[in-house]
Amino acid sequence: MTVEAQPVAGLPDPTDFGFSVVRESEIPDELLALVARVRDLVDTVAHTEADPAELREVDAALAQVTERLAGRRRDTGALLLHQPAGGPAEYGTVTNLVAGPTNPVAPPLVLAHADGGLRGEVTLNGIYQGPPGLVHGGWLAALLDQALGAAASAAGMPGLTANLTVDYRRPTPLNVPLTVTSRVTGTERRKVFVSAEIRHDGEVTAEGTAVMVRLAIPE
Ligand SMILES: CCCCC/C=C\C/C=C\C/C=C\C/C=C\CCCC(=O)SCCNC(=O)CCNC(=O)[C@H](O)C(C)(C)COP(=O)(O)OP(=O)(O)OC[C@H]1O[C@@H](n2cnc3c(N)ncnc32)[C@H](O)[C@@H]1OP(=O)(O)O
Fold first, then answer.
1. Atom of ligand 1 nearest to the CA of 212
2. Is residue 187 part of a domain?
3. Residue 160 near ligand 1, beta carbon < 6 Å
4. Last residue of a domain, one of 62, 90, 106
5. Residues 152 and 70 placed together within one structural domain of the fold
6. What does the DSSP 8-state code read for residue 4?
7. In 37-129, which ranges are E strands?
8. Domain that holds residue 96
9. Are 32 and 113 contained in the same domain?
10. What is the ipTM of this complex?
11. 159: CA distance to ligand 1 center in Å?
C-alpha cells in the first residue's frame, strides 16, 4: 500500500525522487500479526527437533503459504513515514533489518524520544545468538548502528553511517530486556557525531560511536 507522503521538515518529498512512501498507520494490523507469527516461526524452526517426516509436511505447507503471498510484493526500497513517540515525523525503510515493522527478522527495535536523544527496549531471542546464550556481536553492532542513525535522523539530520566503532564491555544475554539509548554529540559541516549504548540491568554491555554523513539532497 503506497500513499502520498506528508512533508517532513527540511526534506523534499521522496516521491519526487522515485521512492514509494507508506505511512505507519497504513500497515494493516493483519500484516503486523502475520509478521509476529513468522518471528515465532523462525525461532521455532531454528530450534526444532521434529522428525523428518513431519518436517517434510511442514515444508510443503509453508511452500503453499509462500506462493499464496508472493503475488503482491512491496518495493524493497519503500520508505516508512512514522512518528517516534515524543518527536516529529521522519522516514525510515519499511523492511529495515533492525526496526522495520514488516520485517520478521527485525526484533524490532522501537525508539522514542527521551533525555535529549532516543531510547528503546528490545529482547533478542535465540535466533540472534552468537556464543551460547549470548547475542551475536554483529547484531549488537546492527542495533547500535540503527540507534545511532536514528538519533541523527530524529534530530532532523538523516544520513548514512560513514564510520562505526563498537566496544563490547560485557557479554549481552539473550531473552532478557535490553535498553538501547542514543544521541547526537556534535556536528561539523555534513558530519553528525553520535553515540549509543546497550544496557542489561542498567549495566552497559556494548557501546558505539559513529560519524553519520548527512544526505546530500539534490536541488
Ligand atoms: C529524497 C528524500 C529521501 C528521504 C530519505 C530520508 C531518510 C532515509 C535515511 C536515513 C534513514 C534514517 C535512519 C535509519 C537508521 C539507521 C540505518 C543504519 C545506517 C546504515 O546502515 S547506512 C548504510 C551503511 N553506510 C553506507 O553505505 C555509506 C557508504 N558511504 C558513502 O556513501 C559515502 O562514503 C558517504 C555518504 C558516507 C560520504 O560520501 P560523500 O561523498 O557524500 O561525502 P564526503 O566523502 O565528501 O564526506 C563528507 C564528510 O564526511 C567525512 N567522512 C567521510 N567518510 C568518513 C569516514 N569513513 N570516517 C570519518 N569521516 C568520514 C569526510 O571527511 C567529510 O568531512 P569534512 O566535511 O570534514 O571534509
1. 37
2. yes
3. yes
4. 106
5. no
6. P
7. 79-82, 90-93, 112-114, 117-123
8. 1-106
9. no
10. 0.95
11. 6
